[in-house]
Write a structure and sequence with these properties.
There is one protein chain. About 55% of the residues lie in helices and about 10% in strands. It is of the alpha/beta class. It has 3 domains: about 110 residues, Nucleotidyltransferase, domain 5 (2-Layer Sandwich), CATH 3.30.420.40; about 130 residues, Orthogonal Bundle (Helix Hairpins); about 120 residues, no CATH class. The strands form 2 sheets. The chain has a 5-stranded mixed beta sheet with strand order 3-2-1-4-5. About 35% of the residues are buried.
C-alpha cells in the first residue's frame, strides 16, 4: 500500500493506493486531535504502519511528527519536483487537494524506490538543534535592535553613540539608560564619569577626561522631539536590547549543558577553537545529516560545502550550491573559520586555498570540507578527535563506510 498526504493548515487529504495503482481509500481530515486520531486508526486498517509509507510535500510539522511517531515511513517530496511531475497525470496540470493526494500516492508507488526516507533524529540532537536555532534567531533580533538603537542615537543622542562604541556593551547600556539625552548628562564631569564607569566595572584604559570630551564634542541633536520623548525612546530601545541579551545568555547556558551531556560531544569537543556554543551548533545541525548519510560524499554535499557540476555535451559549469541545509553550512563554516586560528593544519589548508586565488568564503568552504571528512572519520570509527590520527599527511581515510555511534 502507498499513502499520499496533501497537507494544509486547516484540512488534509489522504489517499491509499495499492500496488496496481488502484485507489483503495480516500478521505479528508481536519487539523484537529480528533482528525489525526481517526486518520491514524483508519490507516492501521490497511496494514501495519511500517508497511505503509507516506508521501508528503514537507519534512517537518505536526503531520510529519504524528506519522513518524505512529511508525509510518515518511517520504518527503519537494514541491518543485512534484510540480514538475504533474504533466504525467495530464497536460493541464490541474490541481485539487484530492487529486494531489492521489498523485502523491502514485508518485510514491512508481518512483518511491528512488526517494529517500525521512529518518527520525535522536531526541537529544533535536533538543540541541532547537536551542541553537532559537539562539540564532535571537542573535538576529539583537543585531536589528542594536542597529535601531544606533539610529536613535544618531538622531537624538550623538554623543551617546561615541561612548557606546568605547565602553563595554553592558556598561554602555547602563550608561544610555541612565543618561539617554544630552540634558541628562549635562552635569557630568570627568571625575563623575570616571567614578561611574569604575562602579560598573569598566576595564578600559580611557580616562574620564577623554570620555567626557567625546560627549562634549559631539554635535547637538537636530531632533524636533521633546527631551522627554527622545529619552523615553532611547531607554525603551536599551531595555529591548538588554532583554534580548539576557535571553541569549540563558540559551548559551542551556546549550552548554545540553552539549556537555550529548553522546556525540566527546567526538568533536577537542577540535580547535570549537567552543561550547559552536559545539552545540555542530551537533545540532551536522548531527542529523551524519545520522542519515550513507557516505562521506553525501555528508559533504548535504552540508553545502561542495559546488554543483552541470555538464551536457560540450557545456560544463561548476557553480555554488544553493539547494542545501543553510543552517548546517553556516554552523560548519563558522567553526572552520575559527579553527584556522587554533590549528596549523587548518591554517595551511586555508592559506593554500587563498594562494590558489580563492576568495575567503570559498577557502573557508574548502577547509570546512576537510573538517567534515574528519568528523565523518570520528563518527564512523566512534573515536574522539585526535590531531595526530585525523590529520596524518593531511588525508582522511573515507573508504570504509561502516558507521559507529559514539
Amino acid at each position: 500500500m502507498f499513502i499520499g498526504w496533501d497537507w494544509a493548515t486547516e484540512t488534509h487529504d489522504v489517499t491509499v493506493m495499492d500496488d496496481a495503482g488502484k485507489r483503495i481509500d480516500r478521505w479528508e481530515l481536519a487539523h484537529t486531535e480528533e482528525g489525526f486520531t481517526k486518520t491514524l486508526a483508519r490507516l492501521r486498517k490497511h496494514g501495519a504502519p511500517a508497511d505503509l509509507p507516506v508521501a508528503i510535500e514537507t519534512t517537518r510539522g505536526l503531520a510529519v511528527d504524528r506519522l513518524l511517531a505512529a511508525g509510518h515511513p515518511i517520504v518527503p517530496v519537494h514541491p518543485n519536483a512534484f510540480h514538475a511531475m504533474r504533466a504525467r497525470w495530464g497536460a493541464s496540470k490541474a490541481k485539487t487537494d484530492a487529486g494531489d493526494s492521489m498523485k502523491l500516492a502514485d508518485y510514491l508507488r512508481t518512483d518511491g524506490h528512488m526517494l529517500p526516507r525521512l529518518e527520525p533524529t535522536e531526541q537529544a540532537t533535536l533538543d540541541l538543534q532547537a536551542l541553537t536555532r532559537q539562539r540564532a534567531d535571537h542573535i538576529e533580533a539583537k543585531v536589528a535592535a542594536v542597529n535601531q538603537l544606533a539610529a536613535l542615537l544618531d538622531e537624538h543622542r550623538p554623543g551617546g553613540k561615541a561612548v557606546f562604541y568605547e565602553l563595554d556593551s553592558d556598561i554602555a547600556m547602563a550608561f544610555l539608560e541612565r543618561y539617554p539625552t544630552p540634558a541628562s548628562a549635562a552635569r557630568l564631569t570627568a571625575g563623575r564619569l570616571e567614578a561611574w564607569c569604575k562602579r560598573h566595572g569598566y576595564s578600559g584604559k580611557k580616562p574620564g577626561s577623554v570620555l567626557i570630551e567625546r560627549l562634549r564634542l559631539a554635535p547637538k541633536a537636530a531632533s524636533r522631539l521633546s527631551e522627554q520623548v527622545a529619552g523615553q525612546l532611547v531607554r525603551v530601545q536599551v531595555q529591548l536590547v538588554q532583554g534580548i541579551r539576557a535571553t541569549i545568555r540563558v540559551l548559551d547556558k542551556s546549550i552548554a549543558e545540553a552539549a556537555a551531556t550529548h553522546p556525540y560531544a566527546p567526538l568533536f569537543a577537542t577540535m580547535p577553537r570549537i567552543g561550547k556554543v559552536s559545539l552545540g551548533q555542530i551537533i545540532g545541525e551536522i548531527g542529523p545529516i551524519l545520522e542519515r548519510a550513507q557516505t562521506c560524499e553525501q555528508l559533504v554535499a548535504e552540508a553545502g560545502v561542495v559546488p554543483v557540476t552541470r555538464a551536457s555535451g560540450k557545456a560544463r559549469t561548476v557553480s555554488f550550491r544553493f539547494a542545501t541545509n543553510r543552517r548546517a553550512r553556516l554552523a560548519l563554516t563558522t567553526f572552520a573559520d575559527n579553527s584556522r586560528h587554533g590549528s596549523d593544519w587548518a591554517a595551511k589548508i586555508y592559506n593554500d586555498a587563498r594562494a590558489r586565488k580563492k576568495r575567503h568564503p570559498h577557502a573557508i568552504r574548502i577547509l570546512a570540507r576537510a573538517w567534515l571528512r574528519v568528523m565523518w572519520a570520528c563518527w564512523r570509527d566512534g573515536t574522539c578527535y585526535d590531531p595526530v590520527i585525523h590529520q596524518s599527511n593531511s588525508k582522511i581515510n573515507t573508504t570504509a563506510e561502516t558507521r559507529m555511534a559514539a
